[in-house]
Amino acid sequence: MTEASSQIPNPDFKTTSTGSHENDGLGFWKFMVAGSIAGMVEHMAMFPVDTLKTRMQMLGASSSCSGAATHWADRAKRGRTLYMVTFSSHHHHQIGNFFTSIMRKEGPLGLYRGIAAMGLGAGPAHAVYFSVYETCKKKLGGNEPGHHPLLHAASGVIATTASDAVLTPMDVVKQRLQLKSSPYNGVKDCVLRMFKEEGVKGFYTSYRTTIVMNAPFTAVHFATYEAMKKVLNEISPENASEERLMVHVMAGGAAGALAGAVTTPLDVVKTRLQCQGVCGADTFRSSSIRLALKQIVAKEGYQALLRGLTPRVLFHAPAAAICWSTYEAMKSFLQHDPEGHPSPQL
């Protein structure tokens, strides 16, 4: 969920004499503001779906973590072939079971446990994400005329590495609070107890996994987004200005869905590492991705790595669309800053 705005001809873009975009005429701090707002809107709007994804991915790690019937884990153990043949119907049925269980036992607020932690982390993390992305894209030449998917992907990977260092601690807190019967009484209690019991290391247990997951996620996301923008704009170039919002929504949605789907197994590992030991969940000897994958597969089978696939796609498709459209709208708004308030240049 991040941005690169280069390929669509846009009357609002400020260009140099060579025709390349100069960061859309915005300064570093304005990219941070636009990115921060976009990130907050995205995560707040889609938080209930994220809660469902977390609960589903913890199914099998502990019967008390997910809050839904454990017969799904038993069925997976009894017959992997049957599970894979009927995976789609089972997966969709699971989503309904989890949603119904949460609404019945915890009420609507159960879907929003941990939202405060995400609110604290998403703003600063997305500010870093978008500003670093725009800076790298400019330095690497991604703003030059033409299509540069590799430059956009590289810029995105650098940006996500920086932003994940900011977001990971609050993401850990958020996921622990999302669990059914979470032992924590809110963000402050979770942070203090984790620091006392696990130290700073506990907040970054999944950082390596997050980077390994988000690097391909971001590469696929940015490359797909930029490619989709270019294709959609070429379909109707004369209406590029009027249809710009719809282009961002469609391109962002497609990019989010594809990137979310292909990185689901690593997201399962990340969730398990972040929530290990909570509510009786399985623990891991180290933060090694390989060992975590091996342990999960040995206990629950390969299908466990696809848990949460549907809600993950359902999260990232609209989330990316919301994030991109909000980010572009904020950039457009900040471009029209009064003349007396020029953008600080990089």
TrEMBL record:
The keyword Nucleotide-binding does not apply. InterPro entries: MCP, MCP_dom_sf, MCP_transmembrane. GO terms for molecular function: ferrous iron transmembrane transporter activity. GO terms for biological process: iron import into the mitochondrion. PROSITE patterns: SOLCAR. Gene3D superfamilies: Mitochondrial carrier domain. SUPFAM superfamilies: Mitochondrial carrier. GO terms for cellular component: mitochondrial membrane. Keywords: Membrane, Mitochondrion, Repeat, Transmembrane, Transmembrane helix, Transport. It is a multi-pass membrane protein. It is found in: Mitochondrion membrane. Residues 1-20 are annotated as: Disordered. Solcar repeats lie at residues 26-139, 147-231, 243-333. The keyword Transmembrane helix applies. Belongs to the mitochondrial carrier (TC 2.A.29) family. This is Mitoferrin-like.
